[in-house]
Design goal:
alpha+beta, SMI1/KNR4-like, 4-stranded antiparallel sheet, 3-stranded antiparallel sheet, 7 strands, globular
Length: about 160
């Protein structure tokens, strides 16, 4: 997906992504972030997307056939007021009782879309709803996740 058609609003005024911020985030999180994610964040460092969904083969608490991607977390200073900050993953993991080795990309606490590093250094993308016990793989890689995104309007009811 071209980054130019991915992003909508930068409502929380996320600053541009820097190489230093990437290194600090990866050190804090203990992972290498996917290059495709970093390419998107170099265009806009998180915020609201154009409104996407990813088809799912099984129902989730969100819908019977898809999950949303309305926003994507950026790499920000921990004190930045935006709720879309993947650097806050460690504290949110504790607060929401999430499984270890995740990087939170999108969600509201009740559900999350994550980079899932539980099986090694190349993350899959997961859907986790702790309250309902859902923990499903959405895509085997972040690249495959991006390739699977469709406009959320495909799922809107008439």
């Amino acid at each position: 997906m071209p980054p130019s058609i991915f992003w909508a609003s930068n409502h929380y005024e996320h600053p541009p992504l820097t190489d230093e911020a990437i290194l600090e985030a990866q050190s804090l999180l203990g992972v290498q972030l996917p290059p495709e994610l970093l390419a998107l964040l170099r265009v806009q460092n998180g915020g609201y997307t154009q409104g996407f969904a990813h088809p799912m083969p099984q129902p989730t608490t969100w819908a019977k056939d898809h999950v949303p991607l309305e926003d994507l977390a950026g790499i920000l200073e921990p004190q930045h007021p935006s709720p879309m900050n993947l650097v806050r993953t460690p504290e949110a993991t504790i607060e929401w009782g999430l499984p270890p080795n995740q990087v939170l990309l999108s969600g509201d606490g009740h559900y999350w879309i994550t980079l899932d590093y539980r099986n090694g250094p190349i993350p899959s993308v997961a859907w986790i709803d702790v309250e309902c016990g859902e923990d499903f793989q959405i895509a085997p890689t972040f690249s495959a996740f991006l390739e699977g995104l469709v406009p959320a309007s495909q799922y809107s009811e008439a």
